[in-house]
Amino acid sequence: MVNAVRVAADAHASHKGVLHAMNQNIFPIRDVTKTSAYRMHTFLGVDTGVIGVADPDIVKFFSEPVRRHTHLSEFHVANLPASLPDVEVLYAYHQTPGYLVDALIDHGVKGIVIDGTGAGSIPRTMTEAVQRAQAAGIVVVATARTFGGRVQETPRRTEAQVVPGDNLPPEKARILLQLALTKTSNIKEIQRIFDEY
Fold first, then answer.
1. In this predicted structure, what is the pLDDT of residue 134?
2. pLDDT per residue over 60-118, tens digit each?
3. Which candidate, 122, 127, 177, places its Cα nearest to that of 145?
């Protein structure tokens, strides 16, 4: 707690957005993930690493966050609606049934994040249901259920109009999609948002 206060009070923390300070490490909140249920040294920036440390003698930063955040964001809290659009997360596995997507269509969601296999692949058993969702105006984002790595833009994803969720875990991709849907449902614009945040 003391180190978190030290980081917050440090002039060099200014304009870096929301930071996570624990175990003497400093991460941008976008990039930090809890990696163990009980261990103390659980928070890591899997793909990006620490941007600084809170050592006993000094708070020291090594790098800057490069993604848009806080004061650089187009999503000012004062301009957001009282409730965000309904977005759900589906966990994908071998032969995930399409009826899970159909249930979300019936529920009236505005977006679906599919936490896909490997590099964010959506199982073929869900393909037709995903197309039905998209035909109903639902935006689909793909994340990867691996420990790290990006979901990349590929010709197949582009053709399928599935937005790659970059290296965000599904729960963070869900929040970003909710925010994006307050502005647009245009796939290219939503992709821009996922590229910038």
1. 98
2. 999 999 999 998 899 999 999 999 999 999 999 999 999 999 999 999 999 999 999 98
3. 122
- The pLDDT value recorded for residue 171 is 97
Whole-angstrom Cα distance, residue 149 to residue 11?
A: 32
The pLDDT score that the predictor gives to residue 75 is 95
CA R_g for the chain: 18
Q: Within its chain, how far is the Cα of 188 from the centroid?
A: 17
Helical segments of 40-186, H only: 99-107, 127-135, 155-160, 170-181
**Contact yes or no for 115/144 (Cβ under 8 A):** yes
Phi, then psi, of 44 in degrees rounded to 5 = -135, 155
Amino acid at 6: R
CB neighbour class for 147 (10 Å; exposed up to 12, middle 13-18, buried from 19):
exposed
Spell out the domains of the chain, with CATH numbers in brackets: 2-67 (no CATH), 73-196 (3.40.50.40)
Whole-number percent of the chain with pLDDT over 90: 93
Q: Identify the burial level of 153 via C-beta atoms within 10 angstroms of its C-beta, where 0-12 means exposed, 13-18 middle and 19 or more buried.
A: middle
25 sits in which H/E element: strand 25-28
Question: Which residues are CB-contacts of 187 (< 8 A; sequence separation ≥ 6)?
Answer: 139, 161, 163
> Which of 8-12, 76-80, 169-173 bottoms out in mean pLDDT, i.e. has the lowest?
76-80
